[in-house]
Amino acid sequence: MNIYDIAKLSGVSIATVSRVINNSPKVSEKTKKKVWDVMNEYDYTPNVFARGLGLNSVKTVGLVCPDVSDRYMASAIAYLEKNLRKYGYDSILMCSGFDYEGKVEAVKILLDRRIDAMILVGSHYAGDCGQNDIQYLKDAAQKVPVVLMNGYIRVPGVYCILTDNYKAVYDTVCNLIEAGRKKIVFLYDANSYSTTKKLEGYQDALIDNGLKVQEEYKVLMPNNVLKARDLLAKKKLDFDAVIASDDAMAVGALKYVHQINKSISEDVNVVGFNNSELCVCCYPEMSSIDSQEEELSEIAVDSLIKVLAGKSVRQKMEIPCKFIKRNTTQF
Amino acid sequence: MNIYDIAKLSGVSIATVSRVINNSPKVSEKTKKKVWDVMNEYDYTPNVFARGLGLNSVKTVGLVCPDVSDRYMASAIAYLEKNLRKYGYDSILMCSGFDYEGKVEAVKILLDRRIDAMILVGSHYAGDCGQNDIQYLKDAAQKVPVVLMNGYIRVPGVYCILTDNYKAVYDTVCNLIEAGRKKIVFLYDANSYSTTKKLEGYQDALIDNGLKVQEEYKVLMPNNVLKARDLLAKKKLDFDAVIASDDAMAVGALKYVHQINKSISEDVNVVGFNNSELCVCCYPEMSSIDSQEEELSEIAVDSLIKVLAGKSVRQKMEIPCKFIKRNTTQF
DNA sequence: CTGAAAGCGCTTACAG
DNA sequence: CTGAAAGCGCTTACAG
């Protein structure tokens, strides 16, 4: 069943059928209805490939993230898919991995599929692998609009939507210091854009409060509860507060504190990042900085739709994080 | 730049170019190389839409799950995407939600996109909404191969890959009873296929060990740590073991036990399901039943590829779960 | 408001 | 091993 069949059955030309499919205003209501009825009766669906050939688009956006099994990315992807669908866009998912090659390949596959736009989730696309490694994004942005969620690069055609991670960490560390903490550890798992911002916030807060930035207090580690715990145990660092770039490491730290029989809240404060369910699994429950995936996703999609409609949109949009204070962790 | 340009530039016909694109064995190595060189030089990529029109496929599979932000589904989707890509298939993601309408819509959108196959993740597609609600899957299976991950329905063209949830729970409950537990609670959050199997395993184990199945010990609740904890607190149930259909509820139970100053392991055993990172966040760490997403995803993709290649494949494939015993929970 | 016709860029059966 | 030609099923500028 194709457009010719429908045309024949409804006694019009294929041009007219095409117009009613695309809801063209130039068709009379009467013929519109006539054709619709036939299409419904025979359960006709236009062939996407043919439409694609004609229109050079099938309303698809590429969603790329290093790994959807990561809680943060999964939740972003979920919101994005939902929001995009509202506007009739389907989502092709690519888990690119964290390596440069994987990222380049994912972007290439998507471009070859003639997607209408691309949304990259997580700040691992903003050049954490070196200096010139965003060339592939620049190239991609020449072809389709590119949205970066939680990363920032100043490239025409790349729209960046992010939360203010610098400020979130800066403020938190200031609060910790005001509450009397002096030996504050920063745990992180990557050198991505957002992590770098968090690190800067951490360092600046220390400096602005007259504390020294100590190298051994900046700990790079796997983002994994048990590994984080054990690494801290091995290092035997002496600290009275922890802030981590993701919850899993923070929970690991919390467990370590437990292990050495210190009291969370009394002796040590622990703050996580991303406000995942992990925060309420541990004891005591853990404060965390919420990175607002839902809001970001919404802004990302709205902006993208505007861009696709030819409207102008700001190249960088930053919203504040939210500090989620759990009763049991006080400062 | 299209196939005509390449043909002209390499001095052959478009038929030949098409053949080298498709790596047809009928082309001489010499012309193959000649054409390849031109394609590479001009960075030519065949137009997917035109290919789609000609081949009636663009090597895409639809991935549908109720909600990717669920840990279990996210991890399955991640593995599926990765495995499918190995075979050159791209993945269109659809988060259908848990309602019937959403599921039907997701499947329809995918079918309209002329996907080559469909993989449904989670057992919510196996008819948890009523009796006749799998008609849309039957219809879909007429058009493309359908794979159900962790669900089972006996429908031609629907291939079901699942873990033996019944046995996993049955065995666990038997072990609990042998260890002296008598008041075993079962927590669950839905009436999906797999949950129903788990519930059956729970009940049969009780019966086979001469215990009574008590209705108040089967607790339907939201799959959420704090809500689970609070609901149990409100119910004031007296129990000495808990098994849940997902980790979050189990952790909630564990926290409740903590709250009433009972000892996990001494007084109460708690076992979760899906072996997520939540299990190691709580204290003490929690045992859980691993539902083998990675293995399932691999089998799912392998089977699908076979089906697409016209080979025959078993309609139902079931593998055992793995019990993950954490040191601190003993029985 | 409607139709005839060209065009989108491939694939492939057929002939050689 | 290679090419000419038809076909895949749409969209749309043009003419009326």
> Describe the biggest sheet of chain A?
6 strands, parallel
Q: Which architecture of the largest domain in chain A does the CATH hierarchy give at level 2?
A: 3-Layer(aba) Sandwich
**Shape type of chain A:** elongated
Task: Name the assembly state.
Answer: homodimer
Considering residues with a beta carbon less than 8 A from a beta carbon on another chain, report the largest interface and each chain's count. A-B, 48 and 48 residues
The structural domain count of chain A equals 3
**Topology order of chain A in helix (H) and strand (E) letters:** HHHHEHEHEHEEHEHEHEHEHEHEE
**How are the strands of the largest sheet of chain A arranged?**
2-1-3-4-5-11
Classify the fold: give the CATH topology of the largest domain in chain A.
Rossmann fold
Assign the CATH superfamily of the largest domain in chain A.
Response regulator
Separation of the first and last Cα atoms of chain A: 68 Å
Rg of chain A, Å, rounded: 25 Å
Q: How many β strands of chain A by DSSP?
A: 12
Structural class of chain A: alpha/beta
Structure annotation, total helices of chain A: 13
Q: Give the strand content of chain A.
A: 15-25%
Helical percentage of chain A? 40-55%
Low-confidence stretches of chain A: none
CATH class of the largest domain in chain A: Alpha Beta
Give the overall pLDDT of chain A as a whole number.
Answer: 94
